[in-house]
């Protein structure tokens, strides 16, 4: 709206400038700003009415502004008509009479009054917008804090489950270490396999007996690492653990 008020004042200044130029020179080219401004003013005032349709005070001022604008344009047109009919001196007498200046002073004062109220309304709306943004920010912060509080129990449960899982893993590792230590300390050869008969452990006695290190034997079939031969027939004897594994598979 502030731009529209400024446009009205600018159009009136252009109209008055064109009128003065014509009265001083008598050349019709100087009337071009006057004609352009008078053609724009009605549309600009109508636009101003639409922008202030929700403001009763401004609507009343616009009604007064319309009357003053029409009066000012009529004064300008009168001076032009007098110039064309009676000459420059007669037109100069109309200007000297001062009605045009009084109308322009009233228009400027009214535009200043409307501008001041519009700026005040803008300040109020800006303050309301800032308060609204502040409330929104506080709501966001409050909502975030509530979400964090709601997540704390979830993090605690997850931490507890992870802790229990870690304790179970450490217990399993401790048990495996204890079993390995126990098997390694036995004086007899000890070879452990998985359910498929693949070597998972050899103690030092078994390593010396088979000639395989634990790293070399791990994952290999038992009958590859430990070849049992019958002392009398010199034939290969089936490994008991492999026989047990096969029996378990057939029962499945």
Give the structure's gist in a few sentences.
The chain is mostly helical and 252 residues long. It has nine helices and two strands. It has helices at residues 2-25, 32-51, 56-86, 88-97, 99-185, 204-210, 214-217, 222-225, 240-251; strands spanning 191-193, 199-202.
Could you outline the blueprint of secondary structure elements for this entry?
Layout: H1 2-25, H2 32-51, H3 56-86, H4 88-97, H5 99-185, E1 191-193, E2 199-202, H6 204-210, H7 214-217, H8 222-225, H9 240-251
Antiparallel strand pairs: 1-2
Features:
252 residues; mainly alpha; de novo design (two linked rop proteins); Beta-Lactamase; two-stranded antiparallel ribbon; 9 helices; rod-shaped
How can the largest sheet be summarized?
Answer: 2 strands, antiparallel
Indicate the mean pLDDT. 79
Per the CATH scheme, the topology name of the largest domain is de novo design (two linked rop proteins)
Instruction: Give the termini separation.
Output: 90 Å
* H-E order: HHHHHEEHHHH
What structural class should be given to the helix and strand makeup?
mainly alpha
CATH architecture of the largest domain: Up-down Bundle
| Basic shape | rod-shaped
Task: Note the total helix count.
Answer: 9
The total strand number stands at 2
The count of domains is 2
């Amino acid at each position: 709206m502030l731009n529209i008020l400024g446009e009205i004042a600018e159009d009136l200044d252009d109209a008055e400038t064109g009128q003065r130029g014509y009265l001083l020179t008598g050349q019709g080219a100087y009337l071009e700003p006057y004609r352009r401004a008078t053609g724009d003013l009605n549309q600009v005032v109508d636009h101003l009415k639409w922008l202030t349709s929700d403001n009763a005070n401004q609507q009343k001022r616009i009604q007064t502004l319309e009357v003053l604008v029409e009066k000012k344009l009529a004064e300008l047109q009168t001076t032009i008509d007098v110039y064309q009919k009676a000459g420059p001196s007669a037109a100069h007498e109309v200007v000297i009479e001062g009605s045009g200046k009084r109308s322009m002073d009233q228009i400027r004062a009214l535009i200043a009054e409307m501008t001041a109220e519009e700026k005040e309304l803008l300040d109020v709306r800006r303050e309301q917008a800032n308060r609204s943004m502040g409330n929104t920010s506080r709501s966001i912060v409050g909502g975030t804090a509530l979400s964090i509080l709601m997540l704390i129990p979830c993090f605690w449960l997850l931490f507890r489950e992870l802790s229990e899982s870690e304790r179970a893993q450490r217990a399993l590792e401790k048990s495996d270490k204890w079993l390995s230590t126990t098997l390694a300390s036995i004086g007899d050869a000890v070879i452990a396999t998985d359910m498929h008969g693949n070597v998972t452990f050899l103690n030092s006695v078994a390593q010396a007996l088979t000639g395989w290190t634990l790293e070399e034997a791990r994952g290999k079939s038992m009958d590859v690492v430990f070849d049992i031969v019958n002392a009398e027939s010199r034939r290969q004897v089936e490994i008991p653990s492999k026989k047990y594994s096969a029996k378990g598979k057939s029962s499945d």
